[in-house]
Design brief:
This protein is α+β, with helices and mostly antiparallel strands. It has helices spanning 23-28, 117-120, 153-167, 177-195, 235-240, and strands at 2-4, 52-57, 64-73, 79-86, 93-99, 107-114, 123-126, 131-134, 139-141, 149-152, 201-207, 213-214, 226-231. Keywords: Metal-binding, Zinc, Zinc-finger.
Length: 252
């Protein structure tokens, strides 16, 4: 089993933005091609129908670049904030998702049988606290790996593949290198096969914070390919996310 760990990123300053779009509208509008409209009223509040832009530094090359922030409402789920950064200098792109609004009181585990093109095209919101598991190919991404993402299932799998390919180094002189490399290469090939539907698999998203979502393409009917379970967080999970010291009652 391959475990990918990344340090959690620090939160940039976030302002509340009252701006509603569905994910479909957002895609139709071409998310990254949207006009840079910055709007604030006299009280420094953000006005609706605007995209809020702020200056950051590229996390790849450190050049100054711009991050655009949108608040969107995912139908049948909740509001999330999407922050998109594109570096004009080196071409680095990122698409981070932060959940917005009240914290979910329960964890959420989503299990999908991936069988078709339609399944690959499902919208997915994977928050930074969500793990991703594909048992058939021994893939397990821990909390924090990949950060938050709002994309399609295929888009997420391709990002996982790219991240693995870019970031998992093999030490030269390691005597176990040929064996490790062949396990790693077959994992990448298996991800390709899943994206081409040559390998059918089970995708398990487990988010103790309850902030992750996979589109039900049969809504409002039950989804025959997907099981969504909610569960009580364990004391250890609450401890991990610093919730045991927080009062959560009354914020439901
Ligand atoms: Zn850059």
């Amino acid at each position: 089993m391959l475990i990918l760990r990344c340090a959690p990123k620090t939160d940039p300053k976030i302002k509340t933005l009252h701006y509603k779009q569905t994910s479909e509208q957002l895609t139709l509008m071409g998310f990254s091609a949207q006009n840079n409209v910055e709007g604030e009223d006299d009280n420094d509040n953000l006005v609706p129908d605007s995209v809020y832009c702020f200056q950051t530094n590229c996390s790849s090359c450190s050049s100054p670049c711009e991050t655009r922030m949108h608040l969107i409402e995912i139908p049948h789920f909740r509001e999330v904030i999407i922050m998109a950064t594109t570096c004009d200098y080196c071409g680095y792109k990122s698409n981070e998702v932060k959940s917005s609004g009240a914290m979910a009181l329960r964890g959420r585990r989503i299990t999908l049988k991936l069988r078709s093109e339609e399944d690959l095209n499902r919208d997915i919101l994977k928050s930074e606290t969500c793990t991703l598991e594909i048992p058939e190919i021994d893939l397990h991404l821990t909390t924090g790996a990949l950060g938050g993402r709002f994309t399609t299932l295929e888009g997420l799998l391709r990002q996982v593949r790219k991240e693995l390919n870019d970031k998992v180094p093999f030490a030269s002189g390691d005597s176990a290198l040929p064996e490790k490399k062949s396990v790693f290469d077959s994992l990448l090939k298996n991800i390709d096969k899943i994206c081409e539907l040559q390998l059918l698999c089970t995708v398990i998203l487990d988010d103790p914070m309850g902030n992750s979502y996979l589109q039900n393409i049969y809504a409002p009917d039950e989804d025959p390919m997907m099981v969504v379970e909610e569960y009580e967080r364990t004391f250890e999970q609450n401890e991990e996310f610093g919730l045991n010291d927080m009062k959560v009652e009354g914020y439901e």
